[in-house]
Amino acid sequence: MHLIKRPDKEVQALAQALVAAKQKVGFCKICFHLSAEPVCSICNNQNRDRSTVCVVGDSRDVIALEKTREYRGLYHVLGGVISPMDGIGPEQLNIEALVRRVTKESVEEIILAISPSVEGETTTLYINGLLRPFTKVTRIAFGLPMGGDLEYADEVTLARALEGRRELD
Amino acid sequence: MYLKKLHLRSFRNYVDRQVEFTAKKTILVGNNAQGKSNLLEAVELLATLKSHRTSRDRELVLDTATASQIEAIVERTHSTNELSIIFRKQGRRTVAVNRENLRRQLDFLGVLNAVQFSSLDLDLVRGAPETRRNWLDGLLIQLEPVYSNILQQYNQVLRQRNALLKKIRAVRQDDPNGSIDSFEPQLRLWDEQLAAAGSRVTRRRARVVARLDPIARRWHQKISGETELLEVKYLPNVEWTEDEPSKVQRAFLTRIEERRIAEQYQGKTVVGTHRDELEFAINETPARHYGSQGQQRTLVLALKLAELKLIEEVIGEPPLLLLDDVLAELDPNRQKQLLEVIGDRFQTIITTTHINSFNQNWIKDSQILKVQAGTIITAFL
């Protein structure tokens, strides 16, 4: 209903934009983030720190991390997580390309930022096993949300937060 | 704790009914299929978010409606809480405490605690190991709500690991000499995940059984007249001795290694807490192989009373007691003993088709409600 009430031109533009998005947007050939160009704007940006690669499950995770404006390195999008139930093994993910990146380029740190589900955990451990011989591998900390109250946190989250504790600087 | 009010909307056969509980004991009288058990089921759902009768939410919704709601007011020693659950024929549930929707169902558990006695309880003795595991898990969730997360995680690892083992078996069947080396690293990780999740499950199960066993033994002695000795034994599929996470995990990994070939041959996980057993032994003989119906009833009563007491001990308040059609099954002696235990401390909701078989002491001081085709009215005897 909303669309029918809008001017023809606006609807035309929207339709074209949708078709264009479908036709043009593919994956960056380096990091597999969504991109209209063969190499995405993040990989192309010479100001970014090329020695750090943050590994995520999905392009949406890249967008979420970019919003923080805290991270200046590059990304690598796996395109999912290991899930035998859905027929997804390491071969179905962009893991081989990641290993190539790490062995060929001078990557000093791999940051694993995969959601802490059972499947995400397995994927994290899998990649850690593969890359550990070549470079430093870290994972993001999981724990309490900012502004959250310790007493209201559940036991699983608290245990995780304790596990990932660090010295104050 | 005290369940003061219950409001059912489009729930099962109730269109819109409110019940106010005015006495410590409430007896619901009515013929079969009038809605007595539906009312107890509503209380069970408030306590555990699970029903022992169905796992499908759509069955909880009146035929002509798309959603149903249970609302309740629960008084505890230091607080009064309003609970609400909405079930939908399609889509997820909404749970709320004091009119605030909760993102995690975990936060809902523990506001109301209840123990249910039903005629299905005899399955605890006679039924498959799964029945006993489910009972133990249900108790654990009431005592330690976070256990529901732990169990969920274990089951997810199990499903994933089974899918991988099934795939490995399929590859083997296609080509008996084919290599499965490429699966090896992934399988190892699922082994570790199973060990990590399994060790959390088994340690908590062992802990709760250790607390339950002496209480059940005392009750059993009391009911059976001190002649029989009950023992509740936890028999984990993966045995371990030292209650230390890393050592329990090691025990899992060792056992997985021993059963590696069997697992790949069967295409499923044969090691883990999904194969745990809970054994009830009377005078050192497993109760499954032993005992008349009467003895088995005594055993079940002792277990249920132990459950009740343990929840009271941990929560610090007496939980609700739901007696679904079981009182008539107990002989006068056991009825009397149960009544003595309940005394005035536990709020009790009882369903029955025939109130005549009840000991007069049950009826005295009780609120009696008549349930007929989804209506509830106060009855005067």
Question: Describe it for me?
Answer:
The complex is a heterodimer of chains A (169) and B (381). With 169 residues, chain A is of the alpha/beta class. Chain A is built from seven helices and six strands, in the order H-H-E-E-H-E-H-E-H-E-H-E-H. Chain A has a four-stranded parallel β-sheet with strand order 4-3-5-6. Chain A has a two-stranded antiparallel ribbon with strand order 1-2. The longest helix of chain A is centred in the first third of the chain and has 17 residues, at 8-24. Chain A is globular, with a radius of gyration of 19 Å. Chain B is α/β, with parallel strands linked by helices and 381 residues long. The model of chain B has no long low-confidence stretch (mean pLDDT 90). Chain B has a six-stranded antiparallel β-sheet with strand order 2-1-4-5-6-7, covered by helices on one side. Chain B is globular. The interface between A and B is medium-sized, with 18 and 24 residues. Chain B: Keywords: ATP-binding, Cytoplasm, DNA damage, DNA repair, DNA replication, DNA-binding, Nucleotide-binding, SOS response.
Short synopsis of the structure:
The complex is a heterodimer of chains A (169) and B (381). Chain A is of the alpha/beta class and 169 residues long.
How are the elements arranged and paired?
The complex is a heterodimer of chains A (169) and B (381).
Chain A: H1 2-5, H2 8-24, E1 26-27, E2 34-35, H3 41-44, E3 49-56, H4 59-68, E4 73-77, H5 95-104, E5 109-112, H6 118-131, E6 136-139, H7 155-163
Parallel strand pairs in A: 3-4, 3-5, 5-6
Antiparallel strand pairs in A: 1-2
Chain B: E1 2-11, E2 14-20, E3 25-29, H1 36-48, E4 67-75, E5 80-88, E6 94-97, E7 100-101, E8 114-118, H2 123-126, H3 129-143, H4 147-174, H5 184-224, E9 230-235, H6 245-258, H7 260-266, E10 277-282, E11 285-286, H8 293-315, E12 320-324, H9 332-342, E13 348-352, H10 360-363, E14 366-372, E15 375-378
Parallel strand pairs in B: 3-13, 3-14, 8-12, 12-13
Antiparallel strand pairs in B: 1-2, 1-4, 4-5, 5-6, 6-7, 9-10, 10-11, 14-15
